[in-house]
Specification:
207 residues, three-stranded mixed sheet, two-stranded antiparallel sheet, 2 helices, 14% helix, rod-shaped
Amino acid sequence: MKPYLRASVRAVLTGVVVLWITPGLAAQLPPGTAQLQASPPPASASAVPLDQQVLALQRQVAALQAQVNALLAAVQVTQNGVVLQGPSVTITGNSISLTTQGNMNLLGGNVSVSAHQSPSLPTGGSLGLSSDTALNMRSGTNFTVRSSTSMSIWASGTGEVLASGNLDLKGSTTHINAGTRPVAGVGSAVNAATGQVVTGSPSVFVN
């Protein structure tokens, strides 16, 4: 075999095969042989040093560990259940259901439950709203409190019922301050000696 055929040919696979012939080998080729332009081997892509790769990996691991620590601080799994806690906890979704077979408590300095449409708190048992300080219920338009049986509103201190417009108290019988005497109306008969109403309102009673 001729010497120029024994020359080593270097091939680099980058989608195509590139032949590289040294200048010394090109000088030994017979006349008329197609000459290949001698060129240095193609430079390979500069690889990232190993120490930099390790450093980048360590940074990624540290960021991931910080996220895991934040998640563990916000979500705690105990024998009694799961606790979500944090300076600000937000639960969002198109549809969210909170279901419990026992008691459910919403505790906090400020607790807000809002909805863009019609919020509903259905319960098969009792529903209690309590606060150690103030409890405010406010509506931008109408506010309705309805009970299928009895309803009680009481205060350990003073109590007020205020309305900027008309205040209408309705009932089959209305007792003011547990009164038992009928209120006098137009045309009612009054005892002139005692001043008591003889034929007053059959539904409104006072003391």
